[in-house]
Amino acid sequence: MFVMESSMSEIIEILEHELQSAVEVKDRGSLHRYVVLLVENVVGRKEHERSENSLKGELGALRSDVALIAERMEQGFAAMDKRFEQVDKRFEELTHQMDKRFEQVDKRFEQLDKRFTMLVALTSTFFVVLATMMTVLRIFG
Description:
Distance between the termini: 140 Å
Radius of gyration: 52 Å
Strand content: under 5%
């Protein structure tokens, strides 16, 4: 800041001297105030421009950071979607396998049911034949 103030003083002195040489000066104090206002306005604009450029740079960096965060979030969501899809596929595979096993168990149960029905029928037939034979033996026997 000190460097800027010393260069401002030098600019003010140079402008005052040039204006004094170029025009007739009625009031040196007024000339000095005019030059100071002019230089401060020019320096203020330059500082404002520097500040604005710095702010634009920071905003650009912020936009870049936000874009990067958004991209990473997008990638994260895509990865989660992929994982959910894989889990869904795995669930469907397991469901399909369980359905097949239940079908196999049902077939086995049907086979056992048929055998049991045949066994009951055979046993019933055996007892009917046995009872008939015993009745025949008692009657004829």
